[in-house]
Design brief:
- The complex is a heterodimer of chains A (about 625) and B (about 190).
- Chain A is α+β, with helices and mostly antiparallel strands and about 625 residues long.
- In chain A, about 40% of the residues lie in helices and about 25% in strands.
- In chain A, a hairpin with a 4-residue loop joins strand 12 and strand 13 (about 180-190).
- The two termini of chain A are about 60 Å apart.
- Chain B is built from four helices and six strands.
- In chain B, the strands form two sheets. In chain B, strands 1-4-5 form a three-stranded antiparallel beta sheet. A three-stranded mixed beta sheet of chain B has the order 2-6-3.
- In chain B, a hairpin with a 2-residue loop joins strand 4 (about 165) and strand 5 (about 170).
- Chain B is elongated.
- In chain B, about 15% of the residues are buried.
- The chains are: A alpha+beta (about 625), B alpha+beta (about 190).
- The interface of A and B includes residues 24, 44, 232 and 235 of A.
Chain lengths: ~625, ~190
């Protein structure tokens, strides 16, 4: 196997390591089971060295020998002094960084099952030469050959595959735990140029947590007169709850912070219960958010660009999940945000891609396209039934078996569709053809295999083949994946907008199809049983049948159809039971294969009826 | 040298003869172009197979991701089922209490539910992490506070929140108060 070059995002608060596997970057989980590792190093009394979460946990007992945020000191003369057994050891920032790198390296080796010797490491775009050299040296101390130092925003752009697109100007908005960076990049022919970068090295998600914690302390003081700040246990619970609430508010409009028995006074235990709305949270951090937007303004100004010049905005860092952050960026640079990749991992992923390129691994990978939209055929009730889902890598082939909707149907029409909507008419029609010459058979009996085969060039071959006669027909569609971006985007957006109503419509058709099937099978049972059904029973069932048919033809609402179906099922269920009883008494009577199939069909719907009860 | 040349000529002639012979028999020797076409076709089919295999792998990866997400949901559902009886019983306890206002029986009920909870955790292999009196270990404990005390340095003095371990893995570390010891404090004073 080719030698792997890993990609490292060496962050101020957290670090992340990834590697290219099968052409795609994979984030490596550390031995503690986390996808990111805290950039904290500690030296314990026993001389043990801890990195990551464990170092963080013991920081309070060992503050003098615990080092956090060493990245801020890279390239300076800063020395970390560690006193152990009366001896003082001095460490350079490079050496401390090397300890973090070593931990990431070890985790990567565990994951890959072999030695790792080479890496690509990322640095902020504003790092100067000595800071970059220091980072490179840190890698060397950790026993790695640093193949390249790349800018964090460049790595993010690589992760999004932007190097493959012609000339573009992108803005990378990176809001991490404790630092904030904005960079504007110009990309052309695989060359990345940082044209402007700005930021705030003391701004991030931790500040937002603190605002929530402060608010909780203040509210509790108002409610109970008790100051929680002197109670470390209560404060820890508040901090944890604040972070959880912040995260929750990224997907919900409101959250409840519930901390029972948070403290006690002479009157007994005290509980904390507070509702926090997204709006209130946004108000709390408004000044921070305004600062980020001011930095965006300043960076644009420095680059001599206007919002219109920006082709894409890439989000990096966990705090960019906050809806208000995205909203603010959108209001300044509308419609350009790209946030498909996990913002905590995007930089490491990009570094891994750079590693793959340097290792020559990327050249070996044949770049394959994906189908931008779902490919489907039209089925009973004008439903679009998907064969190849969108985002499927091509070349690919899928076969599904379909059947007829009417007795003795002589042909079927295969209508090929493209799009995400549930109803055929709302999708783009790519073409249609007929498969004719089907031998007469009851509906549901013929088996017609429909195969969609897309070759590497995106050419779609659709074949329909009747299993019984081996007759087949086909069509070739040349431009199934050659839609332009805006058209794809429009179709996706429409599907999203209409997803609710489409779903309802599809459900309605499903009910209608079921009703139709019920009518068909009850009528068939009546016919099959013939004289065996009493006149009274037959009359009753035919009554129900007529009513359901009326409802279907009158376009009645779903509830009415459902009710009519239910009463028909109920009365005909006894009919089926009766028929089974008779069948049982006349057992051992041989039945032909097609009969058996029919029985199965009836059995199906009876089962469904039992499920209802 | 001369011999060699002669031999070459001989071979060429031999081939010519053979070719004539073959043609006479009505067969055709594969031409260069023909071979090339054949090889091209072979390569085309290999490349197609490679691409299809790779596409299949990519689609497989996508499917695995999708299935993992489904699996996660199903596991979560299953775990919720374990805890619903507790929720039910708590509701019963409150309903009963609001009916009879009997604090004694309410407490008994809660104790019962607590025991039930204990049982579930035991079944799942969850056990508490020992803390107070033990030496601080960042693999199992998280220090919230560090104070001077008569106890040995790094001994855990108080547990703020219990930690749990499940089949050897730390679910949540204990949140504790740790002794700074005495010596260090004295040093600091001097």
């Amino acid at each position: 196997m080719r030698e792997k070059i890993i990609g490292m995002d060496l962050g101020t608060t957290n670090s992340c390591v990834a590697v290219l596997e099968g052409g795609a970057p994979e984030v490596i989980t550390n031995t503690e089971g986390e996808r990111v590792t805290a950039s904290v190093v500690a030296f314990t009394d026993t001389g043990e060295r801890l990195v990551g979460r464990l170092a963080k946990r013991q920081a309070i007992t060992n503050p003098k020998h615990t080092v956090a945020s060493i990245k801020r000191e890279m390239g300076t003369d800063h020395r970390v002094k560690i006193e152990l057994d009366g001896k003082v050891e001095e460490y350079t920032p490079e050496q401390i960084s090397a300890m973090i790198i070593q931990k990431l390296k070890k985790d990567a080796e565990e994951h890959l099952g072999g030695k790792v010797k080479k890496a690509v490491i990322t640095v902020p775009a504003y790092f100067n030469d000595s800071q970059r050299q220091a980072t490179k040296d840190a890698g060397k101390i950790a026993g790695l050959e640093v193949m390249r130092i790349i800018n964090e925003p460049t790595a993010a752009a690589l992760a999004y595959g932007l190097d493959k697109i012609e000339e573009q100007t992108i803005l990378v908005f990176d809001l991490g735990g404790g630092t904030f960076d904005v960079s504007i990049l110009e990309i052309g022919e695989g060359v990345f140029e940082v044209v402007a970068t700005d930021g705030d090295t003391r701004l991030g998600g931790d500040d937002f947590d603190r605002r929530i914690t402060d608010w909780l302390v203040e509210e509790f003081r108002k409610d109970t007169g008790i100051d929680l700040t002197s109670d470390p246990s209560a404060m820890q619970r508040l901090k944890d709850a604040a972070e959880a609430a912040k995260m929750e508010l990224s997907s919900r409009k409101e959250t409840t912070i519930n901390l029972p028995y948070i403290t006690a006074d002479a009157t007994g235990p005290k509980h904390l219960e507070k509702k926090l709305t997204r709006a209130k949270f946004e108000q709390m951090i408004e000044d921070y958010l305004n600062r980020t937007i001011n930095v965006v303004e300043a960076t644009l100004h420095e680059a001599g660009k206007s919002a219109d010049d920006i082709d894409q905005v890439i989000l990096v860092g966990g705090s960019t999940r906050i809806p208000k952050v995205q909203e603010l960026i959108s209001s300044r640079i509308p419609g350009k945000i790209n946030r498909e990749i996990n913002p905590d991992e995007v930089v490491a992923a990009g570094a891994a891609i750079q590693g793959g390129v340097l290792a020559g691994e990327v050249d070996e990978i044949v770049l394959l396209d994906v189908t931008p939209l779902t490919l489907a055929i039209e089925t009973l009730g004008e439903i679009a039934t998907p064969l190849i889902e969108r985002n499927t890598t091509i070349p690919t082939e899928k076969t599904k078996t379909f059947t007829t909707a009417a007795d003795n149907q002589p042909s079927v029409e295969i209508h090929v569709l493209q799009g995400e909507r549930k109803m055929a008419a709302d999708n783009k029609s790519l073409g249609k053809f007929q498969l004719t010459g089907l031998p007469p058979a009851p509906r549901g009996i013929p088996q017609i295999d429909v195969t969609f085969n897309i070759d590497a060039d995106g050419i779609l071959h659709v074949t329909a083949k009747d299993k019984a006669t081996a007759k087949s027909a086909s069509i070739t569609i040349k431009d199934s994946s050659r839609l332009d971006e805006s058209e794809i985007e429009r179709m996706r957006r429409e599907a999203e907008e209409h997803s609710e109503e489409d779903k309802k419509k599809a459900e309605e058709i499903e009910v209608r199809n079921q009703a139709d099937q019920l009518v068909y099978s009850v009528e068939k049972t009546l016919l099959d049983l013939g004289e065996k059904v009493t006149q009274d029973k037959r009359g009753e069932i035919e009554d129900h049948l007529r009513r359901l048919k009326e409802k279907l033809s009158q376009n009645a609402n779903m509830e009415e159809i459902r009710q009519a179906m239910e009463s028909l099922s109920k009365s005909s269920q006894q009919l089926a039971e009766e028929a089974y009883k008779q069948a049982a008494s006349q057992k051992e009577e041989p039945s032909d294969a097609s009969k058996g199939d029919d029985d199965e069909g009836n059995g199906d719907y009876i089962d469904a009826e039992y499920d209802d009860k | 040298m001369v011999d060699e040349k002669k031999e070459t000529r001989d071979v060429t002639e031999e081939v010519k003869e053979k070719m004539q012979g073959v043609e006479a028999e009505g067969q055709e020797l594969p031409t260069k172009d023909g071979l090339l076409l054949e090889k091209e076709e072979e390569i085309r089919s290999y490349v197609d197979r490679l691409k299809r295999l790779q596409a299949e792998f990519e689609n497989y990866k996508k499917r695995v991701l999708h299935e993992m997400a489904n699996l996660e949901e199903r596991i979560s559902d299953r775990e919720i089922l374990y805890f619903l009886p507790l929720y039910d019983n708590l509701q019963r306890a409150f309903t009963s209490f609001s009916g009879n206002n009997d604090a004694q029986s309410f407490i008994e009920g809660i104790e019962q539910i607590f025991a039930q909870f204990d049982e579930i955790l035991k079944q799942k292999g969850v056990s508490p992490i020992e803390a107070v009196g033990n030496l601080f270990d960042p693999a199992k404990h998280e220090a919230l506070l560090s104070v001077e005390s008569d106890k040995e340095r790094n001994e855990i003095l108080e547990e703020f929140e219990r930690g749990y371990i499940c089949n050897g893995r730390v679910l949540r570390p204990s949140k504790v108060k740790v002794s700074k010891g005495k010596t260090e404090t004295e040093e600091e004073k001097t």
